[in-house]
Amino acid sequence: MPTIHVEMFEGRTIEQKRAFVKAVTEAAVATLQCKPESVDIVIQDVKKENWATGGKLWSD
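The structure corresponding to this sequence follows.
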């Protein structure tokens, strides 16, 4: 059973998240040869003030 954890900036619509999890599930089924029912995806929305790259907050 693959469990896929995804962190992304907040602000995506529910429709975007639905399309994303559908596409990721299809990719997991195709590449891992598992059933769609066994694929779990956890999405964590992160505020830009809580994410940094290269020593700089994305909110800056």
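The chain has one domain: 3-54.
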